[in-house]
Amino acid sequence: MKKDKLHIHWYPGHIAKAEKTLKEKLNLVDVVVEVLDARLPVSSRYNDIKKLLGDKPGLLLLNKSDLVNPEEIKPWIEFLAEHTGSPVLTTDTRTNRNFQIIEKKLLELSEPKIQALMSKGLLRRPARVVVVGLPNVGKSSIINKLTKSSKTRTGAKAGVTRQQQWVRINPNIDLLDTPGIIPMKQDDQQKAKKLAFVNSVSENAYSPEIIAKELISLISDNPFYLNKFQDYYNVTKLSLENIAISRNWLLKGAEPDTERTSQYLLKDFREGKIGKFILDKLE
Fold it and tell me: Which of the chain's ends, N or C, has fewer CB atoms near its CB within 10 Å?
């Protein structure tokens, strides 16, 4: 890959396989929990999610909300709720906040399907739920938190493929124990680079130095965010070279080590050390 040009690649064969696997999971459930990265409320959504979900009810979780400003995320919650018709809640990487509300919402969303089954003479059964989302948005941590109080595996279900294992969250909710990985189909390179910023794209798909420069470019459009970066790295002009000099990350001949700086900048950003940022713009 050229060092001076950004282009993040995905492979159509992998995408087709991922879509097939995801559709198989979605066919088994009543409600879909879609996990988004709160730093990318739009860019971390799959473009064709509505086509995959059909008329299945969904619950949106803006995860990693501890990495964003609570006041900045509020209008995004309203925006997503209005434009998707789905309830929207925030979750984070450190606490179990909102998880009792999540369980309540799952029961509410699944009830029409359960009632429809009962109207056909079937007995009431637990709601069946799956957690889906792009890579590294926190699907597994959501599953772990939902199942914290009960690790009871209910095994294969009648009428459901034998390979799928379920965990009973409570007497009324069964959760498919593996997350549905939404395929990384992304033709929009602007969204692609944002996904790279938050580590939702394999590092094999891009040059860290190019991505770090793209992050600096994006941040520089927001004076408040720019000041956060400049203060953190103690520089008056934000660039990889200036950060390297400020941190004394130098090569022989006192040349700035921009490769090392890129890796640290991305790590610092992803871990929330620099500050709290939302990288999408609410139009």
Answer: C
Q: Which two tokens stand for residue 259?
A: 């490769």
Read off the pTM.
0.88
- Rounded average pLDDT over 202-229: 92
**What DSSP string describes the chain?**
--TT-------HHHHHHHHHHHHHHHTT-SEEEEEEETT-TTTTS-TTHHHHHTT--EEEEEE-GGGS-HHHHHHHHHHHHHHH-S-EEE--SS--TTHHHHHHHHHHHHHHHHHHHHHTTPPP--EEEEEEESTTSSHHHHHHHHTTT---B--S-TTS-TT--EEEEETTEEEESS-EE-------HHHHHHHHHTT-S-GGGS-HHHHHHHHHHHHTTSHHHHHHHHHHHT-SS--HHHHHHHHT-B-GGG-B-HHHHHHHHHHHHHTTSS-----S---
Q: What is the distance between the alpha carbons of residues 202 and 246, in angstroms, rounded to a whole number?
A: 29
Contact 31, 106 (CB under 8 A): yes
Here the tokens at position 275 are 């500050």
Q: What is the pLDDT of residues 42-56, one digit of tens each?
A: 999 987 777 777 889
Phi and psi at residue 209, to the nearest 5°: -65, -40
The confidence score (pLDDT) of residue 9 equals 63
